[in-house]
Amino acid sequence: MRAAAVSRGHSGSPVRALARLLAWAVQAALLLAIVACALMCLAGWQMYREAAAAKSLEERVEAVRLREGYTTIDQLPEFYLDAVVAAEDHRFWSHSGVDVLATARAAWNDLKSWSLREGGSTITQQLAKNLCFTQEKRFTRKIAEVFAALRLERMYSKEELLELYVNSIYFGEGCWCVGDACRTYFGKEPAEMTEGECALLAGIPNAPSVYNPSASPELARQRLGQVVRQMIRRGMLTEEDGQALIKEAPALS
For residues 182 and 196, is the Cβ–Cβ distance under 8 A? Predict the structure, then answer.
């Protein structure tokens, strides 16, 4: 009996050693991950501070407001603003600059593909990127834009942020604000847009070279349908009204 017990003890030792080794490996990997995240956050903070030192957020915002063709939020149809929020950031009115759920989902998908295909960026983060940083896809820049977005949310109202956003994004065909895009594609002022034109314009910034109606009328229509379906999903439109809007899409050459 004693010999059998000793034998069992010896036969279990390699298993226990392997278990300990695996536990140490997991702990080391977690520690390395924490250190890497901390260093990346520090680098992102430094990038944000350098951008702020070069030119303050207030100065950058003022530069956008002084652009020719700037359109204030009261000159934009409510339907267009709803379409933008539905298409880009449906929790815009409730988050504080960062959508944790969207970011976590995007991070998981990016890790699986080992890329930065999905950003999970909010409207405020996209505004921060347009104001302060390049369009280069880097983890450090993503972290820097988070710091800038949180700062913007403390400085400006949601209405101001949405107004700045639609006046600082690219719509294709050399249009860098909603007013220029509306005049270029529809030959009218933003306040005169139909609901179909609002939905079409809201969908362009996702991929301006693909979805602008001058480049591809058919893809622009498809994107309009996606925006309308998002509005239905978010309770901004009824199914009936949404389907009617898709059928009555603006005529595109």
Answer: no
221 versus 17: the higher-pLDDT residue is 221
Residues with Cβ within 8 Å of residue 143, at least 6 apart in sequence:
40, 41, 43, 44, 45, 47
Buried/exposed 46-83: b ≥16 CB within 10 Å, e otherwise: ebbeebbeeeebeebbeebeeeeebbebeebbebbbbb
Instruction: Determine the average pLDDT of the residues in 127-153.
Output: 90
> Given this model, what pLDDT does residue 6 score?
47
Decide: 126 and 156 in contact? Cβ < 8 Å.
Answer: no
* 23, burial (CB in 10 Å: exposed 0-12, middle 13-18, buried 19+): exposed
Is the pTM here over 0.85, yes or no? no
- What spatial distance separates the first Cα and last Cα of the chain, rounded to whole Å? 91
Given a contact cutoff of 8 angstroms between Cβ atoms, the answer to whether 57 and 132 are in contact is yes
pLDDT at 115 over 80: no
- In terms of C-beta density within 10 A (0-12 exposed, 13-18 middle, 19 or more buried), how is residue 241 classed? middle
CATH of span 56-247: 1.10.3810.10
